[in-house]
Amino acid sequence: MHPIPPIVIPDDDPPVMAPSAAYSKLAPHDVHRYASRPSTPGELISRIQDAEIVINIRSTSRFTRDVFARCPKLRLISIWGTGTDNIDLAAAKTAGVRVTNTPGVSAISVAEHTLSLIMAVARQTVLVDRQVREGKWPRAMVTQLYGKTMGVIGTGAIGSEVARLGKGIGMRVIAWSFHPKQDLAEWASFDEIFRRSDVVSLHVRQSPETTGMIGRKQFDLMKPSSIFINTARGPIVKEADLLDALRWNRIAGAGLDVFETEPLPADSPFFSLPNVVLTPHAAGNTPEATEAGLALAIENVFAFLAGHPINVVV
Known about the structure:
Elements: E1 7-9, E2 31-33, H1 41-48, E3 53-56, H2 65-70, E4 76-79, H3 89-95, E5 98-100, H4 107-122, H5 125-133, E6 149-153, H6 157-168, E7 172-176, E8 186-187, H7 190-196, E9 199-202, H8 216-221, E10 227-230, H9 239-247, E11 253-256, E12 276-278, H10 287-305
Parallel strand pairs: 1-2, 1-3, 3-4, 4-5, 6-7, 6-9, 7-8, 9-10, 10-11, 11-12
Helix pairs in contact: 4-6
């Protein structure tokens, strides 16, 4: 294989690419990998200014219009993951930069994590565990999921897998999507999902169209006994409205893997709420999903350079 243009990995922190089996595919080539995240936009620019190819690991690296303007050699950003909210896609298109991602590789992992959050919130697992460790022997009446209704918002690879798992444990699945797929579920309007569901699970990509799409109106539609799950992106939900719904028990609980600010600040109101289960944006963090995603991010580079780009976002 002929050497390819130098590749920059500006943000492998904590390291996932370096210890991966997939990384060996880049061994014959000129790769500049940084083991820390750029702390400022200027630092990101300094790392990639002369690069034609970037493999982006962390969503904290933000590719703005200014970044594209100051990195004129850039031709491709290959994202590890599916989210593109850290990239100004319009600016990338204007600059002639292709953006690719790795759709579907973490669908099973994220869906399993979603189901684990549903179970943990419904059965109050974290709260009951804490009480048992304190010497108590609680007899809380927890939620049985069999026969209940799961509402899935977004039916891409992850949402479709969540719907399958929901059916597998005996739940009735209803769904809303920008692009409905035949026979996946009973389709419902956006408001109906919140009104009818015992569990609402969010699986749309963050974009200008979806940012802030769920707020007070939707939480007010939900049953007091219902549960809200977010393993998509934090800013899709108006966090202040979700906090109010949880504080005042307008909904029964929430399972959250993503937040408006990550990591959560030390004074986050979520920490004081007993009806929330929190995980650190880790739904896709399994060895299987990580290896598959990194391998595909590298394959996207090779396909682009061969003139047959795949998994193109813009």
